[in-house]
Amino acid sequence: MSVKDKRAAWDNVFAHGQRLKAFHLRDVNQDTARSEKLSLKLGPLQANFARQRLDDNALNALFELAESSSLINAVADMFNGKHVNQSEQRAALHTALRSNLGDSADSRAAHALALVSHRQMAALIQQLEASDVTDIINIGIGGSDLGPRLAVDALRDFHTGRFRIHFISNVDGSNAQHVLKALDPTKTAAILVSKTFGTQETLLNGGIVKDWLQNDSRLYAVSANIEKANAFGVTSSNILPMWDWVGGRYSLWSCVGFSLALAIGLPKFQEMLNGAAEMDTHFLNAPIKKNLPVWHALMAVWNRNAIGLSTQAVVPYDERLGFLPSYLQQLVMESLGKSVGPDNKAVEHATVPVIWGGTGSSTQHSFFQALHQGSDIVPMDFIGVIKPSHSYTENHQALLANLFAQTEALANGSQGNELQKNYAGNRPSSLFLLDELNPHSFGLLLALYEHSVYVQSVIWGINAFDQWGVELGKKLASGLMPSLQHKNNQAGDAITQSLLKLIR
Ligand code: F6P
User: Fold this and answer.
1) 278 an active-site residue?
2) pLDDT tens-digit map of 220-251
3) C-alpha 167 to ligand 1 mean position (Å)
4) Distance between CA atoms of residues 166 and 134, nearest Å
5) Would the pTM of this model clear 0.70, i.e. be above it?
6) CA of 196 to the centre of ligand 1 (A)
7) Does the beta carbon of 244 lie inside 6 Å of ligand 1?
8) Is the dihedral angle over the CA atoms 25, 333, 42, 405 positive or is it negative?
9) Are 453 and 329 in contact (CB under 8 A)?
10) Among 64, 201, 278, 334, which one carries the catalytic annotation?
């Protein structure tokens, strides 16, 4: 389709946005056909979009927008290892880490490398299991921290109990201090996870832990830069590979998940990969109108562009998914936080919303007041788990009752005599229900978000796989280091200089 077709498709979406200005979710809440029509199911996941502010015609306009963005080709390009990360001339083959669905020599080669690396990881796991190591520290930041941290916590019911897993990410030394204080260096192994092995935070924290361990044989690394890991003091046999065709925020499925594999064991790690692979197969093969990641992405585009909502909250009603909002902040905002396309031209539409959230029911007693009565409308992703892993039946019933109550209250609102006790309603949400939270369903859920992000990037015309926006701050910070080390005070603008004077 041509650029003109895409522009017309956008115009059509906006026209439907205008047409539906007076639409209220309250008016469709008795429509059971709507609930069925706006639902999709894949394996352990049921998605319901009935509480989004659109109708059939608007949804069709969104499907046309996806088609006019050549989505089907773009998806095939990603799976086949084409350079969809244009600014760095790289593939984005995170799917090859868990499935072999690509139809190219590059994607097959990537999958073969992933299998070899998983075998290497299995050997290191065996070695550690046979040792007297009891504690593992994952040292990394961003994608080298958030995925493993989320997964280790979310899959706590599946820990073998052989190792305790700890995380150090922040360059704030109190992070390292707090973690190390509770551990015995003779029983601890550390994994430095860094794709580039050039990240300031990870190198500084790695240095602290290396000195503390005083035994490099318990130092491991996961990196695409083996030379730098070697130079740091990690022996080659303790280094697991990464590649430039996996973005940090898409890397949990690689050996970046080493700490997770140590926590839950390889068979459960494989189940997580299989869950993601189920979503990959669906994403690649299901037609646009039945494709779950496409629906998820289209709701995001609808809320961001047609309704004009600038934030998006994610609220899992499951304590085990407590790190999901933080993980998604990187996945979504680092991927989609761009306003210029690969052609170096400003894109024509608003892109990423601010992603935020927390777990229900706790957050009902913090920020939900604003969701119900604040002046900004926040679209929500609610996530629930049908079968709990505990035996406190009444708690679980109360949790689910709260979850359904919130989706209803936000959508329908309620009118009383006093204005300040009114709820305007018409606050949209999507609901995702997992049969249970296990490695498979967890992998499938994360892959849903990954693919949704890609679809959004294709529709908005931006590159989901680079992150130039983080570089300037890094450069300025390294320039300021000498000033903080009292070597000189030349760096920084006049305001920074005056502040530096204050702290000297
Ligand atoms: O600064 C952003 C970033 O590059 C992320 O994209 C990445 O996940 C993180 O830093 C850590 O990078 P690395 O794994 O190379 O240490």
Assistant:
1) no
2) 999 999 999 999 999 999 999 999 999 999 99
3) 16
4) 11
5) yes
6) 8
7) no
8) negative
9) no
10) 334
